[in-house]
Amino acid sequence: MSICDVFKVLDLAARRGDSAVVVKVSDGFNVVVDAVVGGRLLLGLAPPEVVELAEKLGPGEKAELQMGSLWIQAEGVVLKPTLVVVGFGEVARRVSEVAAAAGFNVASLGHVVDGVAYRGDLSDLEKLVSEGSAVVVANEGGHPSDVDVLETALRRGAGYVALLASQRRAALVIKELLKRGIPREVVEERLRSPAGLDIGAKTAGEIAVSIVAEVVMYYRGGSGKPMKEVKNPYDVLEEADLSQYRCQWRPPRVV
Fold it and tell me: Is the pLDDT of residue 190 over 50?
């Protein structure tokens, strides 16, 4: 069993709920990985009996069970959004660092960063990307593999695909993707290039912040507008009563 299998299952599960039970099933020769989310098996690879076992486990709790010739291991986990970052330079490293600090499960391909869930190379891309995945390709000035990576991500159904590029290079890459048979509507809907939100970023770290902000917007359905516009305090200024104010902040759940 490859760690890519575990990463892919967690990626799929994170888009279905905020917690899951990851299940590993071995018959002594082969191992499969599945997850129970919302009382259902995600992939249908594990025996249906494990659902009852999973319902008893909370995040961080583990259980093992012998079922005939099968050995089953289950662990409750809190799910986090996942992001595959592809690149060989400073911006890719910064994107992975910022995304990991923001709580993402990050797979870094082509660069080494501490704190990520998975480190690998370009050959791992197909094993990690599935329908709805988020993929960022970040090579300053471009890399010969960029178009191939983007084509793979789009063909495998990634929902968010971002390319670090200038306006002109982005246009050239889009032309090549269209030549390769990727439908224009697919490219327009799912490819974000130039990548990131317009915050005036200049340094590698600032560019990484703008890209990760756009990824968060994709996962959370945000508008990308300044919060002052979304929740303008002047709209409720007259009714505000400081004497009645109580801090209602609570730590957010990690998802």
Answer: yes
- DSSP, collapsed to helix, strand or coil, labels residue 37 as strand
82-220 belongs to which homologous superfamily? Answer: NAD(P)-binding Rossmann-like Domain (3.40.50.720)
Using a CB cutoff of 8 Å and minimum separation of 24, what contacts does 250-255 make? 253/18, 253/78, 254/78, 254/80, 254/103, 255/14, 255/18, 255/78, 255/79, 255/80, 255/81
In whole angstroms, give the CA distance from residue 37 to residue 211: 29
Helix 167-179 to helix 146-155 angle, to the nearest 10 degrees? 60
pTM of the model: 0.74
Q: What is the per-residue pLDDT for 16? A: 64
Amino acid, res. 207: I
Domain ranges of the chain: 3-78, 82-220
- DSSP class of 194: S
Burial class (CB in 10 A: 0-12, 13-18, 19+), 151: middle
Burial of 14 (0-12, 13-18, 19+ CB in 10 A): buried
> Taking CA 7 as the corner, what is the angle to CA 29 and CA 4, rounded to the nearest 5 degrees?
55
Supply the mean pLDDT for the chain.
86
Distance CA 32, CA 20 (A): 16
**Are 165 and 141 in contact, with CB atoms under 8 Å apart?**
no
